[in-house]
Amino acid sequence: MGMFERDQQVFANAEPLDDSYEPEDIRERDEELEKYQRALQPIIDNRPTSNIFLYGKTGTGKTVATKFMLSHLERDAAEYDDIDLSTVWVSCENLSSSYQVAVALVNTLRENQTKERISTTGYSQQRVFDLLYEELNALGGTVIVVLDEIDNIGHSDEILYGLPRARSNGYVEDVRPVIIGISNDFQFRENLSPKVKDTLAEKEILYPPYDANQLRSILEPRAEKAFYEGVLSGEVVPLCAAFAAQDTGSARQAIRLLREAGELAQAEDADTVTEEHVRDAQEELEKNQLYEGMQELTTQGHAVLCALAYHQALNEVPIRSRDLYERYVNICDRLDTDNVSERRVRDHLSDMNMLGLICVYERNEGLSAGRYHEYELDVPLNAVLDVLLSTNRFEEIANIIQSTATDNDLLQSGISNY
Fold first, then answer.
1. Do 143 and 164 contact (CB within 8 A), yes or no?
2. Contact predicate 64/122, CB 8 Å
3. CA–CA dist 220, 340 (Å, integer)
4. 363 is in an annotated binding site
5. What integer best gives the mean pLDDT of the chain?
6. Are strands 319-320 and 371-377 parallel, antiparallel or unpaired?
7. Phi, psi (5° rounding) for residue 174?
8. In the chain, what are the domains?
9. Which of 86, 217, 221, 340 has its Cα between 20 and 30 A from that of 26?
10. pLDDT class for 275, splitting at 50, 70, 90?
11. Cα 178 to chain centroid, rounded
């Protein structure tokens, strides 16, 4: 017997439990899909189309719905001789400016034509935009530009001003650019410049978190395909749905929990996936989720987390947002990135509290000072530094924080402390 043998008792086909799996239909999003269809209908009618922005936390179906709708749109558009439709998709996960997004768009368009890529440095922003317009002109027709996780660009929103106005400004001729923006940040639009808000004139579609019944509906057909018949005990799918609904309302979290429970049962050579496997899987994923939560923060979110980590290293916590804000602004200056208002910093802190990364304490000093909040990390400082050190942009500052914490004997042992 070898060390590895093919599983023949738990997973029949694990693909439906993979993050990249695209289901045949989208469950529990009928209202959102109807709005999406109405927003895309003008393309089939061959008339001007509004930009579309989807807002919702991670795992609420924005990206999978977009892939689903665009696949149908492309297939249906092919039936009409007078529709010339192209789609270009860019993930902005590691892009923090309009310049970087424009470079990524140029290179994605050039890949489709086997043309030489352009460098990420060495061009002025206007030159990169000109190259983008050249590529769009070469395509012609309606070009849907999908910008996934667009909130990562923060205040650097020139791409959202330039693309919608490219035709009216004469930068492109027989091209109709349509932006589909996907954002994990409900507040993203509020931080756009007034001219960008006016130019976008977008249709907004909100994706709220799923409840337990919706998550169960999403899990059931995947579980049926993924596991051998009779392997899952009756409480497994409802419990996975309940755990995810109580936490984030994320379908992705529920699916990962189901897969992890199956893998634990497989490792034990068990014939059945049980409630106990789900509870063990939940405990394991909670640890991983903290790391993922930190890694998925935007550049601004990382800067706020970095500022709080700095005060943690100095043993200056819990700390008020007004005091934290000064350190945050200094970090943004050091990174040569725009800073946001103190109110937006509090929004980021609220998001991190929801992710379980920080603690928030409400103080009431009476008439003299009134009510206010103080903040500190709710995860080991070492775990935060691990994430920051793995992010090139924050590596230098993370090293400084690490040295400061070591000097103050405050560096915790890391993952073992979870």
1. no
2. no
3. 42
4. no
5. 91
6. antiparallel
7. -90, 50
8. 30-206 (3.40.50.300), 212-294 (1.10.8.60), 297-417 (1.10.10.10)
9. 86
10. very high
11. 21
Length of the chain: 418
Q: How far apart are CA 359 and CA 380, in angstroms?
A: 12
Q: Which residues are bridge partners to 363 per DSSP?
A: 372
Residue 114 assigned ligand-binding role: no
Known binding residue 222? Answer is yes
Rounded CA separation 63/131 (Å): 27
CA separation (Å) from 228 to 4, 17, 19, 275, 410? 20, 14, 20, 17, 49
- State yes or no: 210 annotated in a binding site: yes
Percent helix / strand / coil, the chain, rounded to 5:
55, 10, 35
Q: Can you read off the two tokens belonging to residue 190?
A: 């509020």
Helix axes 125-139, 98-111, angle to 10 degrees: 30
**Tokens 């775990």, residue?**
383
Q: What is the mean pLDDT of residues 314-330?
A: 94
Cα 115 from Cα 132, distance rounded (Å): 13
Q: Are 308 and 376 in contact (CB under 8 A)?
A: yes
Q: Which ranges constitute the DSSP H helices of 144-274?
A: 158-165, 194-200, 212-226, 236-247, 251-267
- Residue 64, marked binder: yes
| Residue 35 assigned ligand-binding role | no
What is the SS3 assignment for 282?
helix
Question: What is the C-alpha separation between 265 and 284, in angstroms, rounded?
Answer: 14
Q: Which residue type, as a one-letter code, is found at position 196?
A: V
CA 323/CA 80 separation, integer angstroms? 60
Separation between Cα atoms, residue 408 and residue 240, nearest integer Å: 42
3-class secondary structure, 362? strand
**Has this prediction a pTM greater than 0.85?**
no
The residues near 368 (Cβ < 8 Å, ≥ 6 apart) are none
Reading the block at residue 259, the tokens are 């897969």
Residue 63 labelled as part of a binding site: yes
Question: For residue 366, what pLDDT band results from cuts at 50, 70 and 90?
Answer: low
